[in-house]
């Protein structure tokens, strides 16, 4: 993975950089579906969020955070991306012919064996493996952490993030250092994935144009102070120290 820079041929391309993907995408129709565009409206059509809308139709990949096929060995045959997630996905092929998407860890090579095990054998070669937390050595980077057993990965799923195992405590607890530098106590019998979430270059992307944000379901938001007094309580720069209000005059803070 590396960043692709654009020449400033137009003002919208000045400073733009995106991630150039250098892997072949294999999209399985059985594991993907088209979701309804989240345009900030409820089922009746009433608009509830003003800052949403304009998103493209994207294929949502069904990711197996629980790793339901526990006893089967699988091979990582392809990489994929999902518009609804920042980390890259890996396509697993099982011996019985089944396929599954997982949130792959950074550095996991193609054609490597990925499985769910009861113990962590080697941290460097067992990237993306699913193991119980009590078997992971200290100072190990992990991701997709469960909050309760048999629930599926809930914590640390963003691109390039990883939690560090600090210390194993009594009473079946483990001390973890989260990406936000917050320290959490987690049950030792939950399942975790070895390694850091893939696509660490995501934080360096710069879109530099409002049109691309519109494709990502983000419409422009106008500040209330930039409006006229007839359109917003903050309009005309006459707020004068009053509490912040929404466009309908209700206090929001």
CATH class call:
Mainly Beta
Class from helix and strand fractions: mainly beta
Fraction of residues in β-strands: 15-25%
Average pLDDT, rounded to a whole number, is 88
Unreliable residue runs:
none
Number of strands: 14
Q: Biggest β-sheet: count, sense, barrel?
A: 6 strands, antiparallel
Number of helices: 1
Radius of gyration computed on alpha carbons: 22 Å
Helix content: under 10%
Structure description:
The protein has a single domain (2-203), classed as Beta Barrel (OB fold (Dihydrolipoamide Acetyltransferase, E2P)), CATH 2.40.50. It has 253 residues and is an all-beta fold. The protein is globular and about 65 Å long. Strands 9-14-10-11-12-13 form a six-stranded antiparallel beta sheet, with no helix packed on it. A four-stranded antiparallel beta sheet has the order 7-6-5-8, with no helix packed on it. It has a two-stranded antiparallel ribbon with strand order 1-2. The chain starts with a strand and ends in a 38-residue tail after the last helix. The chain contains one helix and 14 strands, in the order ββββββββββββββα. The mean pLDDT is 88. β5 (74-80) and β6 form a beta hairpin.
Keywords:
1 helix, OB fold (Dihydrolipoamide Acetyltransferase, E2P), four-stranded antiparallel beta sheet, 24% strand, single chain, mainly beta, globular, six-stranded antiparallel beta sheet, 253 residues
């Amino acid at each position: 993975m590396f960043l692709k820079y654009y020449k400033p041929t137009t003002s919208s391309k000045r400073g733009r950089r995106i991630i150039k993907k250098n892997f072949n995408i294999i999209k399985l129709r059985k594991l993907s579906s088209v979701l309804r565009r989240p345009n900030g409206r409820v089922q009746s059509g009433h608009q509830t969020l003003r800052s949403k809308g304009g998103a493209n139709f994207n294929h949502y990949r069904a990711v197996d955070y629980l790793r339901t096929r526990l006893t089967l060995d699988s091979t990582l045959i392809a990489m994929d991306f999902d518009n609804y997630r920042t980390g890259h996905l890996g396509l697993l092929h099982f011996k019985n012919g089944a396929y599954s998407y997982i949130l792959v860890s950074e550095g996991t090579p193609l054609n490597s064996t990925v499985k769910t095990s009861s113990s962590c054998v080697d941290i460097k070669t067992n990237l993306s493996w699913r193991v119980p937390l009590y078997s992971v050595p200290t100072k190990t980077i992990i991701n997709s952490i469960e909050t309760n057993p048999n629930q599926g990965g809930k914590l640390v799923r963003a691109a390039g993030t990883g939690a560090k195992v600090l210390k194993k405590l009594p009473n079946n607890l483990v001390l973890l250092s989260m990406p936000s530098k917050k320290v959490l106590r987690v049950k030792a019998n939950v399942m975790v994935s070895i390694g850091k979430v893939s696509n660490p270059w995501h934080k360096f992307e710069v879109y530099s144009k409002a049109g691309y944000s519109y494709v990502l379901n983000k419409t422009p938001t106008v500040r209330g102070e930039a409006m006229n007094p007839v359109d917003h309580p903050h309009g005309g720069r006459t707020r004068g120290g009053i509490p912040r209000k929404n466009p309908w005059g209700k206090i929001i803070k």
